[in-house]
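Changelog note: in this version the structure field was regenerated for every chain. One regenerated record is shown below for reference.
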Amino acid sequence: MRDLLLTLIIFGSLPLILIRPHYGVYMWAWLTYMTPHRLAWGFAYDFRFNYFVAIVTIIAIIRSKEIKIRLPMVLPLLLWMLFSFWTSLTTILALEPFSARQEWDRFVKIQVLIFITYLIIKEKKQIVTLVGIIAFSIGFFGFKGGLFTIFKGGYFRVMGPEYSFIADNNTFALALNMTLPLSLYFMYSTKKIYIRLALLVHNFFCILAIFGSYSRGGLVALIAMGTIFWVASRKKITTLIFILILAPLAVTMMPNKWIQRVSPMLESLNLPLLTGLLPVNLTQKNSLNSSSAFPDEVNFIQLMDFGDGLIKKDAEILQDLSILGRFDAWNLAKTVANDRPFVGGGFGAFSQGVFDRYTPGVFRHDAHSIYFEVLGEQGYMGLLIWVLMHLSSIRSGLWVVMRCRHDPELAWSALMAKMIILGLVGYYSAGISLGLAYYDLPYHYLCLLVILSVHVKSKIRIRNEEERLHGKNQGRGHTFPVQWPAGTTLPGIA
């Protein structure tokens, strides 16, 4: 039944997309971020619905007389085009050609969606709708994950949809962190109290889902975003109270093994306030009791491999295979970049073959960092282009915030730009230890910041032109037509 319903919805939207291509962007984003076909069990599970939507959207753009295939020539977009070209060059010269072509193919499909977004999405309604679809698509799993965390007492990890960028618990936590600010945008934008309360509850469930993912990178991103959110807030006392209520409430719902996992990280970050939120400092109490035939729950957790190879004793990390793997991956990235500084190793550079070539005897690991991932695969030049692309896009967003925050007509764009930048802060924070440099969402965020700045400049230009024309009319004075009675003859006119 789910398969049939989903098929009817998607194929039923294709005629509408032919008439209004921006609906194709909405549908494409929904299929990309929510992957609703993964919620089905039959033929729809592996069906490539997004290909049909993409093809129909492209046909609609070509046949449309209203859409001009013209991109705004601004620095962030030029850098995005340059980075896309650079990945094509590094793919040709890649160390692992077959893997590189596969990853490049996936990357290009993402950039096609970004390109079409640049072409079509221009007006406020279109921008807000697209942001709403992204927030709903990922937030759906956040709400579902929060419920799962409550019902299961937090004893099982929350994961993303299968066979997606965010299937892993760490990447899922990153995506939720990035989406939380979009939900805040809609919460602040509405004046209806019941919608605000519903979104507040939704955000709390998403935070619970981040906790339930057991992702330390996700928790770091949440802390970074909360700090920036509080610093940028004009109501700091209210925001602080809000954070101090939600954070302990979420922590109290988590089991001891979660606290055992995150408390050393909080202590290493030297955050006594956050560590103080924990109900008990287990890192000082939980030592192995060799004389006990039946160790307690926490000691049992110390003895078992907890997914990431984490084994703890007396709150000290003796062997953390995850951290060691990160160091190995980062070392490989630097070694490859030093050997091939211009082009790097290309997509797929973190394969076992490359490890054997540059760091013999080291087992293959994921990049474990968006920065080292770009460095190892795209070289120093590619990393420079990538960083400049992000910085220039954020600069465009900050310009929107500064220019429009006190403008009643454009204040919505300032709030949205602020929340998108906040989501990117979560991406950059969690990305320190997560290899997700080519995930769709950050590129969409950069695209939205550019679209917002172009939209705002267009509105300001139109407004200035109207004011200029209005000023000219006032300077000339107003003239009114005079209607003479019928039959009246003016002097000198026959």
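Spot check on this record: Confidence is low (pLDDT under 50) at residues 280-319, 478-484, 488-494. Strands lie at 310-313, 316-320.
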